[in-house]
Amino acid sequence: MTSPDAAQRRPTEENPVSTSPSRAAVRARSLSKVYGSGDVAVHALRGVDVAFTAGEFTAIMGPSGSGKSTLMHLLAGLDTATDGQVVLGDTELTNLDDTALTLLRRERVGFVFQSFNLLPMFTALQNITLPCELAGTAPDQAWLDTLVDTLGLRERLTHRPSEMSGGQQQRVAIARALITRPEVVFADEPTGNLDSRSGAEVLSFLRTSVRELGQTVVMVTHDPTAASYADSVVLLADGRIAGTIERPTPEAVLAGLDALRTVNA
Ligand SMILES: Nc1ncnc2c1ncn2[C@@H]1O[C@H](COP(=O)(O)OP(=O)(O)OP(=O)(O)O)[C@@H](O)[C@H]1O
């Protein structure tokens, strides 16, 4: 596991704020997000405190509108908080300007989206190595080989997205997310567009990337079976943390979500 690495990576040149020496890859402190103002203000997050452990696979679940996407976007530096802090490794995101945030997103986090978001005119290999191109660095060949073989993409490297199945495209997207060995991979409903078999493959690869390749994955999902691939589930309700489930089974996740509905009914 690379958790100590992840926590130590990128010392604090650009930012003096540092986390406690815990194993959190990314954490939120008293995080709030309000969209709009006055009568139309929407309190999407209401003082969220949560830490995502390095070297683990965590799912975020909760009813529609509970703030899952908002939390993930803030953790990933895709949007800014109204109040509170996000700390990635040793870096407090709220202190960064747009340029620094862009660099952080490019170099320190990876993204997997429901809709794959591959570039259609690029081959699988070109899509996978795109983050390196953008950073002006050469891909680490041994790591590239590990990803390609682990994800079963060796035969597909010269194919364009239109020549691949949804599951294959999502595996390319995972390799692209992992190529820079980011401190955290954020996956937003990564199986939402896949049939159950391809979805299971993708979830197995995400879990393998954590267990065998030492990565850290945070995934938003609506699917209790998808969440059961994670090491733990963080439950959100009405913009607040409503609980966690360790070593989740689909049944335990369903029961946890049902309990939220009962509380909120
Ligand atoms: N750009 C925005 N402007 C105004 N309100 C927003 C915006 N984005 C989200 N919201 C509101 O913030 C709240 C939380 O939304 P968010 O998308 O984070 O929830 P979610 O749990 O991801 O929902 P879902 O499961 O339906 O995707 C909702 O009430 C939503 O309508």
TrEMBL record:
Matching InterPro entries: AAA+_ATPase, ABC_transporter-like_ATP-bd, ABC_transporter-like_CS, ABC_transpr_LolD-like, MacB-like_ATP-bd, P-loop_NTPase
SMART domains: AAA
Alphabetical UniProt keywords: ATP-binding, Nucleotide-binding, Transport
Region of interest: Disordered: 1-23
CDD domains: ABC_MJ0796_LolCDE_FtsE (cd03255)
PROSITE patterns linked: ABC_TRANSPORTER_1 (PS00211), ABC_TRANSPORTER_2 (PS50893)
Residue ranges of domain ABC transporter in the record: 26-263
Pfam families per the UniProt record, alphabetical: ABC_tran
Any one GO molecular-function label of the UniProt entry: ATP binding
Protein name: ABC transporter ATP-binding protein
Organism: Oceanitalea stevensii
